[in-house]
Amino acid sequence: MSATAADIHDNHDDHGPVHTGIKRWLFTTNHKDIGTLYLVFSLIMLFVGGLMAMIIRAELFQPGLQFVNPNFFNQMVTLHALVMVFGMIMPAFAGFANWMIPLMIGAPDMALPRLNNWSFWLLPFAVVLLASTLFMPGGAPASGWTLYPPLVLQTGDAFPFAIFAVHLLGISSIMAAINIIVTIMNLRTPSMSLMQMPLFVWGWLITAYLLIAVMPVLAGGVTMLLMDQFFATSFFQAAGGGDPVLFQHIFWFFGHPEVYIIILPAFGIISQIIPAFSRKPLFGHSAMIYAMASIAFLSFIVWAHHMFTVGMPLAGQMFFMLSTMLIAIPTGVKVFNWTATMWQGSLSFETPMLFAIAFLFLFTIGGFSGLMMAMAPPDFQYHDTYFIVAHFHYVLVPGAMFAAIAGCYFWLPKWTGHMYDERLGQIHFWLSTIFVNLTFFPQHFVGLAGMPRRIPDYAVQFTNFNAMSSIGSFGFGLSQLLLVYVIYKCVKGARKATAEVWDSPEGLEWTVPSPVPYHAFDKAPTYTPRNWGG
Amino acid sequence: MAQPSNKYYIPESTRWPVIISAGLFIMFAGVAILLNGGEIGQYATYVGFAIIIAMVFSWFNEVIGESEGGIFNDRVDTSFRMGMFWFIFSEVMFFAVFFSALWYARNLSLPWLAGEGNNLFTNQLLWEGFENAWPSNGPGGMGGTFEPMAAMGIPAINTAILLSSGVTLTIAHHALKAGKRGILNIFLALTFILGFIFLALQVEEYIEAYHQLNLTLESGIYGATFFMLTGFHGLHVTIGATMLLVIWLRCLKGHFTPTKHFAFEGVAWYWHFVDVVWLGLFIFVYWL
């Protein structure tokens, strides 16, 4: 038992950080401080990665070469992806995990606080290492985030820096994942059973297992790249008996679970928000857990659907096609259960709910295009076109990122003790939703018509849709400045938030005051599931 | 020893992790510069490595002090156990990639290069006359003719050494639980000595490979998988043996009780993991 009523030790409820200023943040072991660090870091990276996206879209505004040379264009594509995946969205969810998991399960803090500090502080160093590659002879890697050999082996001096950056990011993720598993399994209040845990906690628990299983695989794969480049090994060289396709297998064995690592915490956040604003319990709580677990399991046996065109045996294509389609079943369970949660609910449409509903619709569009690509024969047409770009941006931007924004609005009052500006929040929502669709929806059309990805020029018939897409992306990028302003305004102070913040949402996190005290649960609280009646 | 607190211990602040991160940054930047041919990189590598070692030492020193000070309750102990377990699991996955590469080469890429399945033209047009066999340095004969490492020489002796070290470690563990400190100290010492003998023989084997067998990292997929698997395993033996040495010194200082000795068990798990990986290596890399 972490703390009992008989606890005679001094109560730390009222004391804050031991250090002030920069030392507080460098040396902190507090889950809230570390959560804040993750979230601020993620917000900065959103604009770093976003700026790279703007360069890409500026170049694609018109056919022909406008601003950058093709090699730099591909460097932007690569770094945009790496920064957004490892620098923006994963740290955002790690920030939510740090802040909310201990509060949701009644834990005094994360289980391994020093390790927690390390998980965060590896990130800035890794990102500096990665960004430094832009200024080296030959520039940053231009292979895309997938780092396929032999293309990636043509990178100049930047190559080993990029590989080591991936190693540092991997260590960070593994340590964070271990910490989350241990916290949930060991520090949960005894009165909360596993199946009673909130969906956000479940989403992260499953994500953490995925991380521990696949980040080492990526580390091994990039190590092989490094060895092939500098020590003349033959992992990915046919002349030595290796195979460049082996790297693709290794990468996607990591890469496919990775996309669920990104989306499962998002599922978790949406599963907290929709019930709160429907004033109903989540429909099919257990089914939602089993669905996430099934998705996680399936993620390990579908990886080669990213590689249908590499020349796999027919049996391989069949297997990966069918296993991929299976994912639609648990995902369908989730989408229908969110919808059923809203059914006959007493709905209200504050900003978090608006983003959650947008997530529900737009993520589903991304899911549908995913089903289209799951079919191997048509995928030969879609492969490496803008259709793929449209698909994964639909699941990542109005999918994962909208969930992160929704979570941000949902919990900001809990963190800061102030309500955000609802009017500005709603403006931010409408701008984001309109522009995100303007950006990515036309990409389906140009993709189906055959516009290839990762090429800075295109045939003139794609001009109109690309111009729309670019205007949408600039609008979307600028709209996110509004998010920064809303957060700034909220932190600076506004209307005070109550402990419950919203209309009596369920969960332990709403039983502690807003803002949350520096040490919220010194004693394990008693969790009693709400009796919804009826 | 003070009575363990009921409270879950949360350190108020820590300076080690951020400095370790800086050390890793400096070391990796140094290695990267070295790989690009910049001699100056070696200084950064040394400095970074020294920072990491110093910080790891300080970090563990602090935790050992806290542990001996009795401020860790059973729940903290459980956190450490779970953390160590999942850390070892991540290591298992790391080795799994290299085993998979070996499996892929032997069962897929080499047969395909030899024309199996629908790859007839790969063989006819690109690598005419190449036949699938193992060991192989590929159709290009990368690294020149080589001889594979025989399983029944040093590797068999090393297998016996590692398996024995597992036994001596278990005897030490039972002695610790029974409170027989003398036996504990002797068998724990035996364990890490066996570990270091293993490493010495492994070095011997590498010298033989490079000088007599012409088996190098460049020897195609066989050389690549052989050296990466045995090399990473050797690195883990080094780490494991060092950890054994540390807990042996702690035993000499009278640390650990028959009921509370997570550090000992964590290291023991790690050592057994290294042992099991070796069995996999012996079977799939050397023997089959």
**What string, H for helix and E for strand, traces the elements of chain A in order?**
HHHHHHHHHHHHHHH
Supply Rg of chain A: 23 Å
CATH superfamily of the largest domain in chain B: Cytochrome c oxidase, subunit III, four-helix bundle
Roughly how many Å apart are the termini of chain A?
Answer: 35 Å
Examine the coordinates and then state which fold CATH places here, giving the name of the CATH topology of the largest domain in chain B: Four Helix Bundle (Hemerythrin (Met), subunit A)
- Largest sheet entry of chain B: none
Terminal Cα span of chain B: 53 Å
The helix-and-strand class of chain B reads mainly alpha
* Annotated CATH topology of chain A: Cytochrome C Oxidase, Chain A
**CATH C-level class of the largest domain in chain B:** Mainly Alpha
Derived structural class of chain A: mainly alpha
Could you say how many structural domains of chain B there are in total?
2
Q: Tell me which CATH architecture of chain A applies here.
A: Up-down Bundle
Q: How confident is the prediction overall: mean pLDDT of chain A?
A: 94
Share of residues in helices of chain B: over 70%
Q: What is the mean pLDDT of chain B?
A: 94
Q: Give the overall shape of chain B.
A: globular
Domain unit count of chain A: 1
Radius of gyration of chain B: 23 Å
Mind summarizing the main beta sheet of chain A?
A: none
